[in-house]
Amino acid sequence: MTEWRPEDPGFWARTGARTARRNLVLSVLSEHIGISVWSMWSVLVLFLGPEYGIDPAGKFTLTAVPTAVGALLRVPYSYAVARFGGRNWTVFSGLLLLLPTALMALVLRPGVPYTTLLLVAAVAGVGGGNFASSMANVNALYPERLKGRALGVNAGGGNLGVPVVQLAGLLVLATAGAGRPWVLPLAYLPLITATALAAALRMDNLPVPPRRPSLREILPDRHTWLLSLLYLGTFGSFIGFSFAFGQVLQTQFHQQFETPVQVACLSFLGPLLGSLARPVGGSWADRLGGARVTRAVFLAMAVCAALILLSAREHLLAGFFAGFLALFVLSGLGNGSTYRMIPALHHARARAAARQGGDPAAAEAAARRRSGTLIGLAGAVGALGGVLVNTAFRQSFRTTGGGDPAYAAFLGFYLVCAALTWAVYGRRERAAVPAPAVM
Fold first, then answer.
1. CA 110 to CA 116: how far, in whole Å?
2. Neighbours of 51 (CB within 10 A)
3. Which of 19, 224, 294, 380 could form a disulfide with 74 if both were Cys (CB 3.0 to 4.6 A apart)?
């Protein structure tokens, strides 16, 4: 492909829409497999019975490690698409998933040293980087008017990798039994290979010139850090709870659950609903404005955190589970609406620069570059929220034997995020403020 002009209506109708859809489908599939590998440890810890000698705090650490590595990889992965091409990087990053998956299948046996498990869990972090490169690719594929929906579909389909791998883990638990955790990663090896092959045959390298990292352009902007913080609250909650929910249920209500299968039957529902909600959040943000949707989401998340805290104190499993399901749905909606605010911010500034006599094409190119960079940075910060969630649970259960301090901390944080969204972007979509707000 020699040209790519998604904002040109004629080009989009003739060629762009069809090409973008094909690449979007394969991008979703590749990201889905990557996130499945990344989140596989949320399932594998349910297999680690007494014979492995790992306490609940150690299991929370095993889920936090791949989250942290994936978060750190998201920034370089967001540059890789422009540097190497969407198809090329998707194929390479997809095949790279074979390494952690094969390692998991090899080492998961009773008696394996805990340090070895930590190292293998860290390697699984490469799956988390796929999200950033996939989102950057889709951001370049679609015109501004369709970005919210396209980014939401891409992220939602990718995030479905969490409940799908948890359902696969449930199937393994119910058939092969808890003594064969290596069956789960082994089953993913042919899926990884097939997905990489499909990307090699059907995806495109867009004619986007390689760009230097533009972190210097966005780091002084306070909106960079505000949007990253909001994304930490939404995606950090989603991925953190996705990794930890099964363990939390198993530990908080251990008297109600006799086997890991019973926990797995419930724990996949939250990530499933949250993933399906993400495209809806992006679409609502297209129509209503990202700030308005995000503010409402955080207020509702605070209410859910309060319900969870109350239910935990009263040992009400039904209220606890319902609160978490609602929290998953809301975090999915917030993921879509917050990410929609990123291109909206820089696109509005590009329009303002053009009105003031600047080159429209150059302004739009700068907006795309900065949006792609911020998507990578916000994605990394958001994934670090998953580390904070697992760390909060680890510390809470270790010191008090329950999760109450963690639930209270989440409640306070959501209220802070709601207040910040209202104060900075409230009443109107202040994400469209044209002048860079330098710290």
1. 12
2. 11
3. 380
Instruction: Please name the helix (run of DSSP H) or strand (run of DSSP E) that holds residue 320, with its range, or none.
Output: helix 317-355
Chain segment 198-224, per-residue pLDDT in tens: 999 999 998 755 455 477 888 888 899
Please name the helix (run of DSSP H) or strand (run of DSSP E) that holds residue 66, with its range, or none.
Answer: helix 56-84
Q: Does domain 9-432 have CATH number 3.30.1360.120?
A: no
CA dihedral (332, 229, 425, 349) positive or negative: negative
- Of the two residues 48 and 296, the one the predictor is more confident about is 296
CA-wise closest residue to 59 among 146, 111, 121, 137:
121
- Map out the domains of the chain as residue ranges: 9-432
- If one compares 378 and 372, the residue with the highest pLDDT of the two is 378
- 99-149 pLDDT, tens digit per residue, is 999 999 999 999 999 999 999 999 999 999 998 889 888 888 888 788 777
- What does the CA dihedral 100, 102, 105, 106 come to, rounded to 10 degrees? -100
